Known about the structure:
This protein is of the alpha+beta class. Helix content is 58%, strand content 10%. The radius of gyration is 23 Å and the shape is globular. It comes from Azospirillum lipoferum (strain 4B).
Amino acid sequence: MLRILPLLCLVLLVLTGCGIDADQDVLCRKLIPAFESGPVTELSTRSYAEDRRVLRIDYRSGDQRHWIACRFAGTGMEEGRHTLVSVATDRTGWLTDMRFAMLQQWLRIKPPRDAGGAAPAAGRAPPTRWTPVLFLVQQIVNAATVACVYGLLALGYTLVYAILGQINLAMGELTMLGAMLTAMAAAGLGMAGWATWPPALLGVLVLAMGFTAVQGWTMDRLVFRRLRGVRSHTPLIVAVGLSIAYQEGVRLLHGARDWWPAPVLTERFTLLSDGAFTVTALMMQLAILVLTGGLYAALWGIMQRTAFGRAHRACTDDIAAAELVGVDVNRTVAATFAIGGGLAATAGAVIALYYGGVNFFTGYLIGFKALAAAVVGGIGSVPGAMLGGALLGLVETFWSAYFALAYKDIVAFGLLTLFLIFRPQGLLGQARGRGD
């Protein structure tokens, strides 16, 4: 399985895509002149993580940045894929029915016909026999970035669980901290004119990883080290308390508003097209997969070839015996929390720079989904964490594409429930036999 995993990552790297419908993007961009009298530049498109029917286009008009959002009646190959139902801008919010009707008149959008008399949109070829295949390919590539987010955070969960046999539910909030810090730093880079400079973005990532690594180390030093010998559910309850404390602390310091960093690495490529459906890819997607693959390779090398990796494996096998043979357990556990925090920050940086819309509550649901990925892959197994993230990303993306979007979270946690019932150790996990 370990030999197959790099090949899987390579395949995902080749197939990666942004999941943006090119036809919807073109239609939404046609609306910008209705709100801007002058030329616009630096256009970039992103989709909303929670509602794939909505596209948001960021652009610059003169010396100011603006955005426009378009909601369509469907996604993918659904019937309403090219039917615009509402529009919002940063200055007006969602348009009222009257203003939207006037916008439709301005764009000369005709109301859709009934199912029996619908005709293909002008300039768009009818579906071919390859359209369903291209749509399937697009869904595979859509899952790549989601899998990276879940996999990186699942690594943090699995490293801590492997050494302590405890789940740190506050790991999701470390992702939130990384996302918020990345968003604020990106805003500062934008004011300095460095928002798209790769070395500056890399510096932001290092800053976020370092900050959350310190937070992870502090969690262990001040909280979990004191509870290491406790046999009750106290550590789990304390982790929930830490999670709430981080959420409320960030909310009080920065408010409940969403942060939308300016999009970066927005070059888009057309991978495949049959005239009716286009598979597209963003440079940002390639960067995310390269980053994830590099971090996974670095972690694998650390775990297999360094003194810390040997100490971690010894503590995983039997923490009491490891201490008897001279392993510095406290330092090993603290370093594990720090590494987990750094990986969580990377997941947060991906969320902030690719999806946007981060706030104090960002890490809550993402954290539980990453925990589900870790359990499915085999919590305690480093390759299992990445495999679980890939599987969960595929399941969630496919469900969103082919079925009702509102049920995707139910499916994700339903998958976790099934694994807990029929295979508690996960795909690559093993039953724990610890002496602590």
